[in-house]
Structures are given as C-alpha cells and as structure tokens.
TrEMBL record:
<dbReference type="InterPro" id="IPR002321">
    <property type="entry name" value="Cyt_c_II"/>
</dbReference>
<dbReference type="InterPro" id="IPR010980">
    <property type="entry name" value="Cyt_c/b562"/>
</dbReference>
<protein>
    <recommendedName>
        <fullName>Cytochrome c</fullName>
    </recommendedName>
</protein>
<dbReference type="GO" id="GO:0020037">
    <property type="term" value="F:heme binding"/>
</dbReference>
<dbReference type="GO" id="GO:0009055">
    <property type="term" value="F:electron transfer activity"/>
</dbReference>
<dbReference type="GO" id="GO:0022900">
    <property type="term" value="P:electron transport chain"/>
</dbReference>
<dbReference type="GO" id="GO:0005506">
    <property type="term" value="F:iron ion binding"/>
</dbReference>
Length: 202
C-alpha cells in the first residue's frame, strides 16, 4: 500500500511540474505576442519613424505635435500648418495686421543678425524658426493691395516662398553650419524682404 502511495505521489508531482512548465511556456508566448504590437518608441534617439507629412497626424502617443513637420509647399500660404501659426500661437496672432506681422519679422531678422555676430546659435535657430512659421495677417494680404494686384501677388508669393525656404534651411542648420554660411542665408532672407517691399511700394 505504501509503495502504491509513493508511486501515485511521484506521478502527481511530475504531472504538476509538467503542467507548470506548459503554463510558463504559454505565458511567455503570450508576452511575446504582446510585445509585437507595442507601438515604436518616440521620435529622435529612440527611433520612431513617422511617415506622416504632418507630425500632428501621427497617432503615436509620444510624438510631439509639429515636431518634424516638413513643408513641401512652394508657397507657405498654401500650407495649413503655416497659415496663421499653430495651436496657442494661432490664437494669439490671429488678429494681427500686416504691419504688425512685418514688425515681428523685422525683430526676428535682428535676432538672427545678433546671433551671428555674437556666435549665439540658439538665437539664430529661434529667429529662423519664427520667420519660417510666421502668421498671415488677418484676412490675408489681398485687402492691403490696392494697385497692380496681379503682378504684386506674383512677387509676394515668389519672395515669401524664398524667405520661407531659406529660413527653414537656416533653422535646420543653425547649430552645424559655419557662421559665414548662415550669414549668406540671412542675406537671402533680407533680400527677399526688400524685393517684396519695393514691389509693394511701387
């Protein structure tokens, strides 16, 4: 009888161990399948690759809105993200007049110039980003044009595109490009502004 009890107990222990091992394997398999659906890490060092043209359209929880927006529009006024700024900026600057927008752009140009002269790359980056994302005046620019509207709008679009493209380039290279190269970009931006102003005054 004792022998039968020992055999029965041994068989029970073995079957329990086998069952526990099977459960562990099942749990491990379940964990592996869960890992495969975890969303990738956020942008930057952790490697999340976003294929959205606009960062705010990315559903990844760690993706900062607007962090990597690349504008491929020839005319920034066609880009919804650059139309009146974004988020709080849009609310603050929605009622600006054309003069106020131009005054802000002038301040940002001075900021970039000060950054270049003093070697402050943060000032260059901030100024260039502000110009690239400048808001449109309330109602757009058309209400301010009283003559030669068709010809003037061509110049405005062309120069605004040049200023936008160059300021985006400067913002991206502010911490790496030689100061002489950044100064050349500043000349292109200010040259676009001057050409547009001359056309507007004429």
């Amino acid at each position: 009888m004792k022998l039968f009890a020992v055999i029965f107990l041994s068989a029970f222990i073995c079957s329990s161990q086998a069952f526990a091992m099977q459960c562990d394997m099942m749990n491990k398999k379940s964990d592996d399948s869960t890992e495969s659906v975890v969303p990738p890490a956020s942008d930057g060092a952790s490697g999340h690759k976003c294929d959205m043209k606009k960062a705010e359209e990315c559903k990844h929880p760690d993706h900062k809105k607007g962090a990597d927006h690349k504008c491929d529009m020839k005319n920034p006024e066609d880009c919804k993200k650059h139309k009146g700024g974004t988020g709080d900026q849009a609310a603050i600057k929605a009622d600006l007049t054309l003069v106020e927008v131009m005054q802000d752009l002038s301040n940002q140009l001075s900021r970039i110039q000060s950054g270049i002269l003093s070697g402050n790359r943060l000032m260059i980056s901030k100024g260039a980003s502000a110009i690239a994302n400048h808001p449109a005046p309330k109602g757009g620019i058309k209400p301010y044009i009283t003559k030669n509207s068709d010809e003037l709008m061509k110049v405005v679009k062309e120069m605004d595109g040049t200023v936008h493209k160059t300021s985006m380039e400067m913002a991206n290279l502010a911490f790496t490009a030689p100061m002489s190269e950044l100064h050349e970009m500043l000349s292109r931006i200010s040259g676009g502004c001057v050409k547009c102003h001359d056309a507007f005054r004429d």
